[in-house]
């Protein structure tokens, strides 16, 4: 066991061929992240900013066009055959939709048994014992194993999908919005399950979400992603108390109010503008076309990540001011929304 990160992603880039001839979709661009054993880390950003592509590239479902993925310090691109298979198994992906990730025709027992066989567990008795253990770990009764996966509720199916991922003793789970398809009442239960798994099994978890509140509860650290790039990263509480990139401030300001009346009276905009196309990302800072603080410089160069406090950095030329408590981006965004309202009326 090392004390280093279990997963290290270095300067990862994933580009897709665009439908526009000769162009590329810059889905993930120069992303570096780390996950330590037993840690839950959040990855947040709007739709289309590249979260799933990053997760899928890490587990090998997409091919990186540059950069490296290291598991326990070993670069996966240097492995082949059984060694690569073992490493891939240590990285598991939990999908958003618990309906598409399971085979309808299988019973719960068969679904889990299949994963255990892939993991090389030969004896039937061992597999049965392990199935029971896995069901227990995800909070399902043993009797569930004889039911077809299609008969289960969304929350139960997601638990079965998680049990299948756990069957191969992964070191890292990439959880791609694993609760967004679930009823609000079930979400908290499945979230608690993730917290327990992390405590009991020490599995590290990269938790992808739109919802900052959700991540705030569960994650110790958070990465904020915008148009293929990490724009801010820090310990959860620090990032929530001192968001230091205008985009993070916008995301935080957009968390809907629980109270519908307060939500209707909201002054701060939900989100201003739309994410530009990743086929033609803006020059310099990619957020500049929506940023209420953008200046001429932001067009010219990609802002480097500035260190703000231990483990907290943000890639904005104004990051230090914003970190010092200036909420100007937020206030500016509010003013911009008022201007947009005025223009619309
Ligand atoms: N196979 C593909 N070929 C071409 N473009 C793709 C492919 N997969 C994803 N993209 C594009 O890459 C960008 C990032 O997509 P991705 O699904 O990673 O975003 P996301 O942050 O997960 O969004 P969401 O929150 O909606 O799930 C999008 O512009 C998407 O259209
Ligand atoms: Mg996604």
Keyphrases for this structure?
345 residues; alpha/beta; Rossmann fold; 2 domains; four-stranded antiparallel beta sheet; 21% strand; globular; binds adenosine-5'-triphosphate; binds magnesium ion
Beta content comes to: 15-25%
Label the overall shape. globular
Order of helices and strands: EEEHEEHEHHHEHEHEEHHHHEEHH
CATH architectural group of the largest domain: 3-Layer(aba) Sandwich
Keywords: ATP-binding, Nucleotide-binding, Transport
Domain ABC transporter: 7-252
Organism: Aminobacter aminovorans (Chelatobacter heintzii)
Family: Belongs to the ABC transporter superfamily.
Can you summarize this structure?
By secondary structure, the protein is of the alpha/beta class.
How would you portray this structure in words?
The protein has 345 residues and is of the alpha/beta class. It folds into two domains: 219 residues, 3-Layer(aba) Sandwich (Rossmann fold), CATH 3.40.50; 104 residues, no CATH class. It has an eight-stranded mixed beta sheet, sandwiched between helices. Helix 3 crosses helix 4 and helix 3 runs parallel beside helix 5. The model has no long low-confidence stretch (mean pLDDT 88). The structure holds adenosine-5'-triphosphate and magnesium ion. The site of magnesium ion (MG) has 3 residues, from helix 1.
């Amino acid at each position: 066991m090392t004390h280093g990160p279990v997963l290290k992603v270095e300067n990862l880039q994933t580009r897709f061929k665009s439908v526009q001839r000769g162009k590329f979709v810059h889905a993930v661009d120069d992303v570096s992240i780390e996950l330590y054993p037993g840690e839950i880390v959040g990855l947040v950003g709007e739709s289309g900013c590249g979260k799933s592509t990053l997760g899928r590239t890490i587990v090998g479902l997409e091919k990186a066009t540059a950069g490296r993925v290291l598991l326990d310090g070993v670069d996966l691109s240097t492995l082949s055959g059984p060694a690569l298979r073992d490493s891939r198994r240590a990285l598991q992906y939990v999908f958003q939709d618990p309906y598409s990730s399971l085979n309808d025709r299988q019973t719960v027992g068969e679904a889990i048994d299949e994963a255990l066989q892939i993991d090389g567990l030969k004896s039937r008795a061992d597999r049965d014992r392990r199935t029971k253990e896995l069901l227990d770990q995800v909070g399902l009764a043993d009797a569930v194993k004889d039911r077809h996966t299609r008969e289960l509720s969304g929350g139960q199916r997601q638990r079965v999908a998680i049990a299948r991922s756990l069957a191969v003793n992964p070191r890292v789970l990439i959880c791609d919005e694993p609760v967004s398809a679930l009823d609000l009442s079930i979400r908290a239960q499945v979230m608690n399950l993730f917290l327990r798994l992390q405590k009991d099994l020490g599995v590290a978890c990269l938790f992808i979400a739109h919802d900052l509140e959700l991540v705030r509860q569960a994650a110790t650290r958070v990465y904020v992603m915008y148009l293929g790039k990490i724009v801010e990263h820090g310990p959860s509480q620090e990032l929530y108390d001192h968001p230091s990139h205008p985009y993070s401030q916008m995301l935080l300001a957009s968390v809907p109010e629980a109270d519908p009346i307060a939500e209707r009276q909201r002054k701060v905009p939900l989100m201003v503008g739309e994410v530009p196309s990743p086929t033609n990302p803006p020059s310099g800072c990619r957020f500049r076309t929506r940023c209420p603080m953008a200046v001429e410089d932001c067009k010219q160069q990609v802002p480097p990540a500035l260190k703000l406090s231990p483990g907290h950095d943000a890639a904005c030329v104004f990051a230090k001011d914003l970190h010092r408590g200036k909420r100007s981006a937020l206030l500016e965004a509010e003013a911009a929304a008022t201007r947009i309202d005025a223009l619309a009326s």
